[in-house]
Amino acid sequence: MAVVRLAFVGAGRMARTHMRNALSIEEVEVVGVCDVDRGRAEEAAKIAGTKAFLSVDELIREGKPDAAVVSVPPFAHGEEVDLKLVRAGVNLFVEKPVALSLEVAFRVLEALRAKELVGAVGYHWRYWETTREAKWLLEDKEVVFAGGTWQGGIYHPSWWRRREKSGGQVVEQTTHIFDLVRHLVGEIRRVYSLRRRGVVRDIPDYDIDDATVVAMECGDGVPVVVTSTCVLDFGHKVGLSVITRKMVVEVGVGRLSVIESGHRLEKVARNDPYADELRAFVEAVREGNPEGVLCPYDEGVKTLAATLAAIESAEEGRPLEVKGVT
Ligand SMILES: NC(=O)c1ccc[n+]([C@@H]2O[C@H](COP(=O)([O-])OP(=O)(O)OC[C@H]3O[C@@H](n4cnc5c(N)ncnc54)[C@H](O)[C@@H]3O)[C@@H](O)[C@H]2O)c1
After folding, report:
1. Are residues 101 and 135 in the same domain?
2. Are 118 and 129 members of one domain?
3. C-beta separation of 192 from 115 below 8 A
4. Given 3, 81, 143, 220, which is the most exposed site by the fewest CB atoms within 10 A?
5. Residue 39 contacts by C-beta under 8 Å, 6 or more apart in sequence?
6. Are 62 and 28 in contact (CB under 8 A)?
7. Using a 6 Å cutoff on CB, does residue 254 contact ligand 1?
């Protein structure tokens, strides 16, 4: 197809970034913006020079999209959004996490497969040129162990601090690091987690964990630990260090450090991973070939499975196997 008729579902902060990028792609026509919040839908539609909708049904009927960018909060995925779009034959770019339950994620995956549609997930870390270089560097190395972290504050929307709406920091935010572990080290097979609660007492409605430490077994037996906290009021440290026999490869926010005896190389990514992930999705839809998509939907489901197992492990106080996706 020459031009992709692209719709937006969810018109919040993340959608604005995707919309800006979509508007710069010549082969995209934005055919509608849908949000349950009328003000947001209308404001975003005005920016894109398109129509605002309050329901996905209306968006599908009137906008006739080929593809949609879904940037709704984690709890909103499922029957009313993703499944309606897929059943109508709409290719999906979905923000992470793909859902809050594996049951929903599997249903969307099955529907995408049945309709032979492109499904992509916004794990944009995979698109930084520095992450790509890390992947290339690690390809022929034996990983000894790895350590990742996300240390920062509480993300601003009110749904974020409610566990039943966001899943908590591990499921909603540190999911980027879990995905990086899967991408650079290997499949997360087993998890054992500890958590801290009750430190944040001054934020209304806050019921998520303050800190989590997740030990995991990855690939063919590589130990990895991923820690998270959202108790700070500033962004402190985010990234993953991968230790090989004689080299440390550290991936940060658009950064790469390669450390060897007597030598340290620092790189800063020059590309915009959000622009690149959207372009890869649009190209995949246009060409009917998903090869350029670095995080297909099934990968997003596997990352969700690992984060959900991590949360469950903390709750049950025992190690758990991660449920696989075939
Ligand atoms: N990849 C990244 O770096 C990154 C960064 C920020 C957010 N995100 C992800 O993007 C998603 C959205 O986050 P955000 O920051 O834009 O949140 P937000 O709260 O700013 O926006 C979400 C929007 O979705 C709308 N919405 C809720 N339910 C809906 C429904 N059923 N149909 C249509 N619209 C609905 C809300 O009204 C709101 O306008 C989350 O999954 C988040 O994890 C990703």
Report:
1. no
2. no
3. no
4. 220
5. none
6. no
7. no
Mutation test residue for ligand 1: of 9, 13, 82, the one with most atoms within 8 Å of CB: 13
Considering the domain architecture, whether residues 78 and 165 belong to the same structural domain is answered as: no
Q: Is 164 in the pocket of ligand 1 (CB under 6 A)?
A: no
pLDDT single digits (tens) 198-256: 999 999 999 999 999 999 999 999 999 999 999 999 999 999 999 999 999 999 999 99
**Residues 18, 274 contacting (CB under 8 angstroms):** yes
Residues 8, 93 within the same domain: yes
Is residue 100 within 8 A of residue 74, CB to CB? The reply is yes
Tell me, using a 6 A CB cutoff, whether residue 110 lines ligand 1.
no
**pLDDT over 70, % of the chain:** 99
Mind listing the pLDDT tens digit for each residue in 175-193?
999 999 999 999 999 999 9
300 in a domain, yes or no? no
Structure token digits, residue 111: 């529907």
Nearest Cα residue to atom 3 of ligand 1: 124
Domain count, the chain: 2
